[in-house]
Design a protein that fits this description.
Blueprint: E1 7-16, E2 22-25, E3 30-33, H1 42-48, E4 56-61, E5 75-79, E6 92-94, E7 101-108, E8 113-117, E9 127-138, H2 141-146
Antiparallel strand pairs: 1-2, 1-3, 1-9, 4-9, 5-8, 6-7, 7-8
């Protein structure tokens, strides 16, 4: 069965930076609903369209095709008083204002300020995306209606 709209594609993948250093790889295969449902980068989806199980590819994704350009406007300085006492660099918080996830990148204890970054950690980077298609199946009507894969192993709520 070829990969086409409304198929569930299971693949294993790896992300590398421009120098070939591994950034992330799938320990478990990932599945996404193919056909413009935003389950995977559009450039990857386009490369996989029409392919069969066993297909392997390597793609170079520019920032605009992957995690976006780095946006300086998403760096904020907040008062340390608004955070838990046990605050560490790398902790992540969801903003009540915009719903973005912000990462603590610096804690200035002298100025009692915290620097937060709402950019994805890989934004601004050109990445190498490698994947192998493991399985393809028709999506269920429920998956199509919900616009994502249901794996059947957990209760599903929206």
């Amino acid at each position: 069965m070829p990969i086409q709209k409304d198929t569930v594609v299971t693949l294993k993948y790896a992300l590398y930076d421009e120098k070939g250093t591994l950034i992330e790889s799938s320990e478990e295969p990932m599945a996404y609903l193919h056909g413009g449902y935003d389950g995977i980068f559009p450039a990857v989806e386009a490369a996989l369209d029409g392919q069969e199980a066993g297909f392997k590819t390597k793609l170079t994704l520019e920032p605009e095709d992957a995690f976006g350009d780095y946006d300086d406007e998403l760096v904020r300085v907040e008062s340390k008083e608004t955070f838990p006492e046990e605050l560490e660099t790398g902790m992540r918080f969801e903003s009540q204002e915009d719903g973005l996830i912000y990462t603590v990148v610096e804690i200035d204890t002298e100025a009692k300020q915290v620097v937060l970054d709402g950019n994805h950690p890989l934004s601004g980077m050109t990445i190498q995306f490698e994947c192998e298609v493991l399985e393809i199946r028709p999506a269920t009507q429920e998956e199509i209606e919900h616009a994502h894969v249901h794996d059947g192993t957990e209760e599903h709520a929206h």
